[in-house]
Design a protein that fits this description.
Rossmann fold, globular, alpha/beta, three-stranded mixed sheet, 16 helices, six-stranded mixed sheet
Length: 416
């Protein structure tokens, strides 16, 4: 049994990829403080919310538990005690069950080295990219992963703290680590800080290998390039270092031909777009993704890729799926007219389409979208914008599948 901890787990792209390659694995813990992500993860990977299992837990017990958690509605700011009290009883119960059922450690700032079991095979950490992204740089934010910045991308150093606490207490470190983030982390702007992080891992006995991988090379109809770093615990064993250097030279996933050998499927944009508007769910989602006709939206139409023009469908999205579609640039637009005055004659990708472009199944999206509690009276949790944000913050499952296949090969050669 391959034991895994997903830090910054989101909606569980890692678990989805491990499941799809058929590995015998266990997610020992997840770790995420975003309420929507916590609940969506449980719905996708546990199949629903186990109300009956927790029927004897009182609302008061649930409220007391949540008051002791560091949780967030938007993934940016912590909810204070009053805000948590103001959440509906229904949402609080669902959230409580989701945390328990996914063994969620919640905020990484509250996790200690002693909380991490010693028999972990893989620890994944896809920490927030907001302060590393090019968009952040354009707005004058150059803090990146600086230790002194204390920003969202600085959550990387919480991972360091946990590993160092484990090491100082002579607890066995995870055999594999996997980082995912925007490629800007590799730029000259952030090189010194990233080298600092790599040096920490090397000092702990890890061998690091970095990839810049584009999802389109793994059968995904989306140009989405991200940085990945696989770290393997070698305890400074020279023979293992030599093997790993040769292995990555011969099996470089940055080579499109090699990437295709590790891919398990290929799909096109036509397999993702939901254009049958006789389906009431597809039509409702299309309507919700059709913006008001304004000059700024006209500019979006003119400056972004037309994915479907009423007759033909592009093969891929030129731009990556991000946390917002109502922006310029975005992932592309689709011809659509429901006849409502004041609306554009096109729409954005729907949340369902974004989930599928990230490698999730339509059933995964259905599970999330059909469980939509109010977080305040009359205010739903899983809005169109929230669902798109969950997809945009995730990782392409198909890329992870290839990486995990390589980790399995390395594991078999070095540790079995």
């Amino acid at each position: 049994m391959f034991k895994v901890i997903e830090a910054f787990s989101g909606i569980g792209a890692q678990a989805k990829a491990l499941e799809r390659i058929g590995l015998d694995f266990e997610i020992v813990n997840t770790c995420d403080w975003d309420i929507g992500a916590i609940i969506a993860y449980c719905l996708i990977h546990n199949g629903g919310i186990a109300f009956e299992k927790y029927a004897d837990i009182t609302d008061e017990e649930i409220s007391d538990f949540l008051q002791n958690q560091t949780i967030s509605m938007d993934g940016k700011k912590e909810l204070n005690a009053g805000m948590i009290s103001g959440l509906t009883a229904d949402l609080k119960r669902i959230l409580y069950i989701a945390i328990k059922e996914t063994r969620n450690l919640v905020s990484i700032t509250d996790v200690r080295g002693q909380d991490v079991p010693e028999d972990i095979d893989l620890f994944t950490y896809s920490f927030p990219c907001q302060d590393l992204s090019a968009c952040s740089y354009w707005h004058g934010n150059k803090t990146g992963i600086s230790r002194e910045a204390h920003n969202r991308s600085g959550m990387l150093w919480e991972v360091e703290r946990i590993l160092l606490e484990m090491h100082e207490n002579e607890r066995r470190l995870p055999r594999f680590l996997l980082m995912e983030n925007v490629t800007n982390i590799l730029s000259s702007t952030h090189r010194e800080d990233f080298n600092d992080w790599k040096s920490t891992l090397e000092g702990l006995g890890y061998y690091n290998h970095i990839y810049r991988l584009n999802a389109r090379n793994f059968g995904v109809p989306q140009r989405r390039e991200r940085a990945y770093m696989i770290s393997i615990l070698c305890d400074k064993d020279l023979m293992k270092y030599m093997y790993l250097s040769r292995y990555f030279d011969e099996n470089n996933l940055e080579n499109a031909e090699i990437a295709s050998k590790y891919s398990t499927r290929s799909f096109r944009l036509k397999d993702v777009l939901r254009l049958d508007y006789n389906n009431t769910d597809y039509r409702r989602e299309a309507d919700a993704s059709q913006p008001n006709d304004t000059p700024s939206r006209e500019k979006i139409l003119q400056e972004n890729d037309l994915l479907y023009d009423g007759e033909s469908i592009k093969d891929i999205c030129v731009n990556t799926v991000t946390t917002r579609q109502d922006r310029n640039p975005n992932s592309g637009v689709i011809t659509y007219d429901n006849g409502i005055a004041g609306k554009t004659k096109w729409r954005y990708l729907t949340p369902r389409e974004c989930f599928m472009l990230m490698g999730f199944d339509e059933e995964d999206f259905r599970r999330v979208s059909t469980c939509d509690p109010d977080f305040n009276v009359g205010k739903k949790l899983f809005t169109t914008g929230k669902l798109i944000k969950l997809a945009g913050n995730s990782i392409c499952v198909d890329v992870l599948e290839a990486i995990f296949r390589q980790i399995m090969e390395i594991d078999e050669m070095l540790f079995e």
